[in-house]
Every structure is written in C-alpha cells, then in structure tokens.
C-alpha cells in the first residue's frame, strides 16, 4: 500500500489559501477570546494554534454558506472546554441559572454606555470577575460583536439563554463598576 502524499496547498481537495483567507482575519478575535477563557497568554496561544490545526483538518467538512466565524469560535471554545484548564475552571465556577427570568436587551443599554465610558482596566476587572458562562456571552456579544443567533450557534445554547446570560453579565459588570467606583455618580447609570 503506497503512502498518499498531499501536495502542499491542498487539504482534502480544498486549497489552504481558501482556509487562510477565511481564518487569518479571525486570529486577533480568537486570541482575545482564548485569553479571556484561559486567563493565560501562553495557553491562549496554544488554544488558538490547536483551533487552527483542528479547523484546517476539518475544513473539508465546512459547508459553504455556513458562518465560518461562528464555526471557528465554536472549535476554540470546545478545545478550551476539553483542555485540563477548561475542565478545572468549569468544574469550580459553575453557577446555577435557575430562578432568573429571560430578559430581552436592546442593543444600546445603559450598561453598554457605561462600558464605553468606563476605564479600561476597571471594565477588564469587572469582566474577569464574571463566571465563564457569562464571560463567554458578554465577550462574544460586546467585544466580538456577534449577533444573538451567532452566539447561540457558537456556544450551542438556546437564543433565550444567550439573551438572559448577556443581560445578567451586563448587570454584574455594571454593579461591579458602581461598587468599585465608590457609588460616585456615573453618567448612564440609573439608581
């Protein structure tokens, strides 16, 4: 049986340049998301690298017309969740979501206005204190500017859950910033 040699530039009949054209623009967003998930720059680089390897191997299964960006973020998240760090973090920081009603949030909320005006380090600290369930949704919605449906697909959760988690995450960020600011009057916050 002769070994099959894959010519450089082809994977499963698709050209690498097609993958590169789609994937390379996502590199910064994937890295930022991986940094937030893992909390470690080195691990984030490893996660992104592993995501690119997995997605390149599976590129032949990618269907044209499917949202490539969502597909890549989903691979990154699943890669993180199956990593040792991801499993440890998930097991220690799960939060019960029962008892909270789902809230529809408009695109321009007082929380978004506050986040835009607040000090970057304070916002980063506020996001860092969120549980991973809320961090993911907030980062994908407000940093990566994904739509609810895209987040739902990337995280494999119902759209109502996306909206609920996003509302709660934004509220927790707002509350953290207000508490840290010593209850100073901040424009855009209703008491």
What's the oligomerization state? single chain
- Strand neighbour order, sheet with most strands: 1-2
Q: What is the count of β-strands?
A: 2
Per DSSP, what share of the residues sits in E-state strands of 2 or more residues? under 5%
Amino-to-carboxy terminus distance: 74 Å
Q: Could you give the order of the helices and strands? A: EEHHHHHHHHHH
Helix-residue proportion: 55-70%
Q: Could you describe the largest sheet, including whether it forms a barrel?
A: 2 strands, antiparallel
The backbone outline, from C-alpha atoms, is globular
Report mean pLDDT, rounded to a whole number.
76
Count, helices = 10
Q: Specify the structural class.
A: mainly alpha
User: Which regions are unreliable across 5 or more consecutive residues at pLDDT < 50?
Assistant: 1-14, 93-106
The Rg value, from CA coordinates, equals: 19 Å
